[in-house]
Structures are given as structure tokens and as C-alpha cells.
Specification:
Alpha-Beta Plaits
Length: 168
């Protein structure tokens, strides 16, 4: 039995970011170039999603925004290194990540998407409730008893407590 892996096709998912220096139409052209790179290495794209322009979590090469794209493809595992290297050297791709994933049917993908949408709605509702609670707390007046308003009254109460006969 050989210790090396067979060179069979695996299913991969790749998320990549195109820099903001391109317009929306030019970014779509860059996405198609990346897809052509996959096809030129013998890959077959099975699913693609273009997410559009989004703010980056942190600045990458003086870019605060980027065009996100996700694609799934089947390709020989030996060719994935060539794609990874080409994307790493490309000036038209800020970041990319390639991971091995299981093949999902249309129903499974729709179910995952609906679950993620439900989670997003729950998170949004929780944030709204927290914000409403904060505003309610701010609106509630602080309760200060009228008895403690005067320092003279406090002094009299302290004298009464300290002079009590049952403390001795």
C-alpha cells in the first residue's frame, strides 16, 4: 500500500476578496478571471456566490473595503497548490482561503442559509431588546428618599442611634 495519497478530485470552497480599487463591474471581471484560473487547472465550479462590496474587519494593503466572492469547485488535489500560489502572487486578490468541504445538495444549502438567516434575526432581536432595556434604565428616575436629603436630619438620627440605651 502506498504512503502517498491518490490524486483524485476533492470538493473545495474558496472565499476571496478583490480590492476596492476596482469598480463593481471590474470586480466581477476579476472574479471571472479567478474562475478561469480554476477551470484552466481542470477544476469544475459547482457553486458561486458574489457578495459584493463589504467593509473589511481590518485594513489590508491600505484597503478598507473589498468585493467578496465565494465559489465551490471540484479539482484534482495536486492542482490546488498551483491555484493557491497564483492567487497569493496576484495583485488583484487581497486575500483568499481555500478549504476542503463536503458536497452539499441544493436542499442542504438552502437549509443552511435559512438557519443562518434565523440566527441573524435572533441576534438582531437580542440587540434591540438590550438597547430598549438600556433606554428604559436611563428613563427611570433614581429613587432618593426625602429623609436622607438633609445632613442635619442625618446627624439627628445618628445621635439617636448612638444614645440608645439598649446598645450598652
Amino acid at each position: 500500500m502506498s504512503k502517498t495519497k491518490k490524486s483524485e478530485q476533492n470538493h473545495y470552497e474558496m472565499l476571496f476578496i478583490i480590492p476596492n480599487k476596482f469598480t463593481e463591474d471590474e470586480a466581477k471581471v476579476q472574479v471571472s478571471k479567478v474562475e478561469e484560473l480554476i477551470a484552466s487547472q481542470g477544476g469544475e465550479i459547482t457553486y458561486r456566490e458574489y457578495w459584493g462590496k463589504k467593509r473589511l474587519a481590518y485594513e489590508i494593503k491600505q484597503n478598507h473595503y473589498g468585493y467578496y466572492s465565494l465559489c465551490e469547485f471540484d479539482i484534482n488535489r495536486l492542482a490546488i497548490a498551483k491555484i493557491d500560489n497564483d492567487l497569493r502572487l496576484s495583485k488583484d486578490v487581497l486575500r483568499h482561503q481555500i478549504v476542503v468541504t463536503p458536497v452539499l445538495s441544493g436542499e442542504e444549502r438552502a437549509r443552511q442559509k435559512s438557519l443562518s438567516e434565523k440566527l441573524a434575526v435572533k441576534k438582531e432581536d437580542g440587540e434591540k431588546k438590550a438597547k430598549a432595556n438600556e433606554e428604559e434604565i436611563k428613563k427611570t428616575p433614581s429613587v432618593v428618599s426625602e429623609e436622607t436629603n438633609s445632613s442635619k436630619e442625618l446627624d439627628e438620627k445618628m445621635e439617636g442611634i448612638l444614645s440608645a440605651q439598649d446598645l450598652l
